[in-house]
Every structure is written in C-alpha cells, then in structure tokens.
C-alpha cells in the first residue's frame, strides 16, 4: 500500500506539539527540582544541590496539610457523587413524562467552566449577598460564613463539587443501567429475591465496570480541582480548602524559588501517577484480564 | 505485548517496562520516606539509593 | 422499567432540576441588580431588570480585549486541534506504524496529567527557553493556542479515532486505484465522511479552551489574558464588584450554553474519554 512515511508526516505535528509542551516540561521540572534556583535571590544562577529541595518538601508542614485536605475532599466528594449519582440514575429508570427534558437540564452543569461554577457558588454563599446564608439564618438561625469557619468552607467546596459533577455519574450510571439485560432480574424475581439481594448480587456486579470507570475519572478530576475552589474560598480560611493545586497556584508559583517549586510539582505529579496507577492495576486491569 | 513465559513474583502480569516503572515508583517512595524519617537519625541517603538499586535489579530480572 | 406513579417521578425530577438551575438563576439575578440593592435582604424574585452591569462590561476596553483574546485563542486552538487530530487519527487508522497503539495511549496520558504541576515548568520554558531572539511565546495568543493543545489535542485524537476507524478503508483504496493523490483522498474522500465527528470535536475542544482558567491565569500578563482570568480579577480582598463579576460570568457562560444545546448528547462521552456513550 502507500508509504509509511506519509503516516509519520501526518502524525509529526501532533507528536512535536505534545513533545514540546508535554514531555519537555516534565523532564525540565525534574531537572530544575534538583537545583537551587532563585533568580531574585542572593545567587540568581542555577546550582545543583542534590536532593536538598526534596529534603525540604518532606518537612513542609503547609504542603503536607494541603495533601491531607485534598485527600479528605476527594474522599467525601467522590463518595457522595457515586452514591447520589447511582440513586438518581435508579430514579430515572421509570417511565414518566418529560424524561429527556429533565436529562438535558441535569447535563447542564457539566459544560460550565469550573471557574464559573466557583463564581456562581461564591455569589450564592457570600454572607452579605448570598441567598444561602440568608435563608439559613432566617429559617434555622444557622450562621454560614465560609470566610471564617474552616469546616463550613470545606463542606461548601464539597457541595459545590457534588453539584458540578454528580450529573456525570448519573448519566454514566443511566447508560450502564439501560444496557442491562432484563433476564437475570426477571429470574431473580421469580426466585423470590428481595430488592436488596437483587442490588448486591445482580445489579452491582453487572454495572461494576461502569462504576469503576466513573470512579477512576472522577478521582483523577477531583485530585486536580483548582479553579472552583480558588474562586470560592481562595484556599482559605487558613489552609482548610487549600488543595494541592490551589497550594501550587497560591503559595508555590508566586514565589520565585523555582527549584523548590519544581520539587513540589514533581511530588504532586508522582502522587497523582501512583494513585491512578494503583487504581488502574488494582481495580480496572484484573477485570480485563478475567475477561480475556 | 507478548506474555512472559515464566510468571514472576509480582501479583500482576508485567513486561519489562512495567517493572522498570514499578522500580522507579518504589525508589521515589523509599527516598521520600528515607528523607523524612531515617535521614534525621543519621542514615545516609546513599544507603537508600543502594537498597533501591538492588530492589530495582531484582524486580526487573525476576518480577 | 419499574412501575410507580409517574407524576411522583416528575415531581422528584422537578425538584432536582430546580436544585441544578437555581445557582445559575441566582447568577443572573445578581447580574441584573444595581449595587445598592444587593446588600438589602436578598430576594429570590426579580422586580425589575437593570442592564447597566452588562453595559459596563461591554464598555470596558480591557474586558473587551479579554473577550477577543478568548475568542481568538479558543477558535484557533479548536481548529488546530481538530485538524491535527484528524491527520493523526488518519495516520493511526490507515498506516501500519510501529508502536502506534503505544503512541495513542501516550497521547491520552497528556490529558490526564494535572495542569497545576505544569504551571512552573511551562512558565519557565515559555519565558526562558522557547524564544527566538526577542520573540518569546510567553503572553502571546499563539503561545496559549499551542499550550491548550496539551489537553485538547489528546481529546481530539481520542474522540476522532472511532470516527476514522469507522470509515471503510476500501473507499480510499478505490480512490488510490483511480490515481488520486493522498491529499485528494484525505480532503475529498475521508473528510466529507468524517464531518459529523469533526464538528463535535471542534465544538467540544472549543468550549474546553474557552473554559480554561489555570494556565491562562499564570502564563499571561496582559496581551493574551482571557475572559476567565478577567473574572478572577474582579474578586479582590478589598471589595468585589459583585454585579460586574456576575455579568462577566454570564458572558463566559453564554457560549458554553449555545454549545451545550448543539452537542448535548456527546458531552458525557467526551468527558469520560468515550468510556460511556451517554
């Protein structure tokens, strides 16, 4: 057939761009992370300093706190989204008028820019102008001030993430539930299984692949949440919502200590890769192997 | 990928690239742990590097 | 399908939809209120509409510049990514290239990487390394167009691959037999058939680029700043102009809503790397 050269020529621009803006930055950040480099410091030149930056990273209390709050955020947000998304998908599995209309509305948050989601929720929860603190204090006498209470700020970011991303889980779950064959369910009903048994022994194993794929995607996205939180709380109060991405944006990037900032970036990238890889190996790969 | 003839000690099927990747991941994890907890006790980081290299060699050859 | 009163379901979904829509409605409410009314007791209902915030945004030269930048960058990026993705997928689907499946998988890892990690290296590369004489890519539209490729190009390749694989190879082989050049085959045989897939890719990459904030906020100073960064500039510690901020948000939201109405069915597949057909 036609020459392979043409294929490589067609592929070349893509590979070049991804190399220049994907691979080179990766190598470069690892390279810089082993250097002392602060252009505005006493010595503006790059000096190789072994692993000194990493020596600082592992004792950086602020950074470790940001890892902890990120883990808490990811755990609460993703768990709630999966449970809520599944419940909503089940509620969608009946016949009722206007199904596609409701589905359309439900998809809407997914296309919104994260920064707009942050802005929308800021307008909702800022004490002076927001509707939520107002209603809470009028109806329940509850004081919501995300600028001051660390717990409230944390919960608000989780709720915001739930609002933004639960539809994704719902829609993937609907897709999975719709594609289930009816036979096993009818058989189970004839055999007298109750709804809980059907859920644990038939539905759950059958939609497991879809759940795992959704979990994987949501975990990856939740770990790198930045824009919304930056807009809503700016990482505050204190370090309550300073998730790793926000930490890099607010505390690491503005400082000109490039060597140390690179070391933090490398550690974050390392943790992301390890978590994704463990998820993939532990949850998704065994299923594929079992299949083939 | 061609499956390995002889199953290694790792719980999953791997090719040489996977094992190299696992070795690097373990090296970094061990180094960070070492810097945080063992180096303050006076154990040099080079011990960690040596351990990691031995570990890597074992994983890549036998994994 | 389980039985049950359908109107109960309708009631339930109406409530869920209200919860989904209310924050967006509230954004609109804030954007059409004069500043003095904001701090009186917040009311859910609108009594009168005040368009001044929108007029202020449109009259603001800086923000107009940001809007133009956003339009240029996201359009340029969408066209570039869709074109290159189309060529790349054609190559991956029709040629027997060594290691092409590894290449395909590698491209998608570029999209999975957390952007925050790349802020510092990209900033340093753009300002110090990627420069020719006085020209550097930092704070230029072309620089942002290229940087947005790191997440949009893998996306384009990922979504276009099934489209290209779905076009029968026999068609281009027949054209080659008739003596057509590769360029003619790509533009006159494959392209028309791939058009629906290309349109969806173009639209979704466009909206992802339009929505991007983090990279734009750190890698631009003035010349290439986008509307999303303009939004964050209106949030200051000393006092936020809430009405203006809401109006900018609405301006940022409108294109996304239009896009939403066009490709609603493909959004879920797009966000899950095609793992779910939506």
TrEMBL record, chain A:
Subcellular location: Cell membrane
Pfam families assigned to the protein according to its UniProt record, in alphabetical order: BPD_transp_1
Gene Ontology cellular component list: plasma membrane
GO BP terms, alphabetized: transmembrane transport
Cross-referenced InterPro entries: MetI-like, MetI-like_sf, Sugar_ABC_transporter
UniProt keywords, alphabetically: Membrane, Transmembrane, Transmembrane helix, Transport
Keyword hit for Membrane: yes
Family: Belongs to the binding-protein-dependent transport system permease family.
Taxonomic lineage from the root: Bacteria, Pseudomonadati, Pseudomonadota, Alphaproteobacteria, Rhodobacterales
Membrane topology: Multi-pass membrane protein
Transmembrane segments: 7-31, 63-89, 101-121, 162-178, 198-220, 263-285
Boundaries of every ABC transmembrane type-1 domain copy: 63-279
Name by which UniProt lists this protein: Sugar ABC transporter permease
TrEMBL record, chain B:
Membrane-traversing stretches: 20-37, 43-60
Domain of life per record: Bacteria
Keywords associated with the record: Membrane, Transmembrane, Transmembrane helix
Protein's name in the database: DUF2160 domain-containing protein
The species this protein was found in: Paracoccus siganidrum
From TrEMBL, chain C:
Gene3D superfamilies linked to this entry: MetI-like
Domain ABC transmembrane type-1: 67-263
One Pfam family per UniProt: BPD_transp_1
Keywords for the protein's UniProt record, in alphabetical order: Cell membrane, Membrane, Transmembrane, Transmembrane helix, Transport
Record membrane topology: Multi-pass membrane protein
InterPro entries linked: BP-dep_ABC_trans_perm (IPR050901), MetI-like (IPR000515), MetI-like_sf (IPR035906)
UniProt subcellular location: Cell membrane
Record field: transmembrane: 7-28, 71-92, 112-130, 142-160, 198-222, 242-263
Taxonomy, superkingdom: Bacteria
GO biological process per UniProt: transmembrane transport
GO cellular component: a single term: plasma membrane
PANTHER family according to UniProt: INNER MEMBRANE ABC TRANSPORTER PERMEASE PROTEIN YCJP, MALTOSE TRANSPORT SYSTEM PERMEASE-RELATED
Entry similarity comment: Belongs to the binding-protein-dependent transport system permease family.
Protein name according to UniProt: Carbohydrate ABC transporter permease
Species name: Paracoccus siganidrum
